[in-house]
Specification:
By secondary structure, this protein is α/β, with parallel strands linked by helices. The chain is 38% helix and 18% strand. It has a single domain, classed as Carbamate kinase, CATH 3.40.1160. It is built from nine helices and eleven strands. The protein has a nine-stranded mixed beta sheet with strand order 4-3-5-2-1-6-10-11-9, with helices on both faces. A two-stranded antiparallel ribbon has the order 7-8. It is globular and about 50 Å long. 43% of the residues are buried.
């Protein structure tokens, strides 16, 4: 298949674990996993180098009662392990449809994935592979949003695309409040001052300090990832 128009040379796609569970209360919905893989393949076929930072909320949220009263660092490490499960599931779905994929982990697990090394990640991307970053930054107290911002800066990405279940950033929860206002554009200071919960403050600060733009969009609509990569108007842009 021929390459289509691309806007960005290299992007980081931030996927929340909650997206993977679909309509299930917990775990990975195979249909959603396969649909995500198909959308990533569409984006990959534009010629843009795609790396992915994946969360673990679909698995970790089901363990929250078990972590009650637990040391925060231990609980965070458990959340990092959940991202490994999601990364392996997405890798399998991508490779099943012909997309060469590598999983790189911030916590070494040699039998499962390659350790994260910046130059190795860039080399995989240059060779046309999709790279999935798992286990966050490898440190407790940092979210996978921050991991996405950090990896994007490290590998020289042009853009972070944050895939969610809603079609952009709103003034308040659009599911609960019909009066919620959608923003087409924001600057990073707006996000910090108004305490918009779309991305955590550490990640916002890292993006702002490094002039790294961000688009928040819905992954639930088929083809949206490809539209975002092609630079079409979609979601909310933050810069």
């Amino acid at each position: 298949m021929g390459r289509t128009k691309r806007k960005w040379k290299r992007i980081v796609l931030k996927l929340s674990g909650e997206v993977l569970k679909g309509e299930l209360g917990y775990g990975i919905d195979p249909r959603v996993n396969n649909s995500l893989a198909a959308q990533i393949k569409q984006g990959y076929q534009t010629g843009t180098q795609i790396s992915i930072v994946i969360g673990g909320g679909n698995i970790y949220r089901g363990l929250e009662s078990a972590t009650e009263g637990m040391d925060r660092s231990t609980a965070d490490y458990m959340g990092m392990l959940a991202t490994m499960l999601n990364g392996l599931a997405l890798q399998e779905a991508l490779e099943r449809i012909g997309v060469d994929t590598r999983v790189l982990t911030a916590i070494e697990m040699h039998e499962l994935a390659e350790p994260y090394i910046r130059r190795r990640a860039i080399r995989h991307l240059e060779k046309g592979r999709v790279v999935i970053f798992v286990c966050g930054t490898g440190n407790p107290y940092f979210t996978t949003d921050t991991a996405a911002a950090l990896r994007a800066v490290e590998i020289g990405a042009d853009m972070i695309l944050k895939a969610t279940k809603v079609d952009g950033v709103y003034s308040k929860d659009p599911v609960k409040y019909k009066t919620a206002k959608k923003y087409d554009k924001l600057d990073f200071m707006d996000v910090l001052k108004n305490k918009l919960k779309v991305i955590d403050a550490t990640a916002v600060s890292l993006c702002m300090d490094n002039n790294l733009p961000l688009i928040v969009f819905s992954i639930k609509k088929e083809g949206n990832l490809k539209r975002a990569i092609e630079g079409k108007k979609i979601g909310t842009s933050i810069s």
